[in-house]
Amino acid sequence: MNKLYIGNLSPAATADDLKRLFGDRKLPLAGQVLLKSGYAFVDFPDQNWAIRAIETLSGE
């Protein structure tokens, strides 16, 4: 698995919000979302999916 750091999140963001964000873009998560205040870590099945997530979500 490849862990990806997601920063600059609203303190109101939830794990379900992130799961929905990735799911809507057909980006499969491989594990739980570890959410802290303002940031999160998500796991992807492999490096290719992690890179695709970065490319897809950059600038959003």
Automatic annotation (TrEMBL):
Keywords per UniProt: RNA-binding
Domain RRM: 2-60
Molecular function via GO: RNA binding
Gene3D superfamilies: 3.30.70.330
Annotated Pfam families: RRM_1 (PF00076)
Protein's recorded name: RRM domain-containing protein
The organism of origin for this protein: Anas platyrhynchos platyrhynchos (Northern mallard)
Lineage: Eukaryota, Metazoa, Chordata, Craniata, Vertebrata
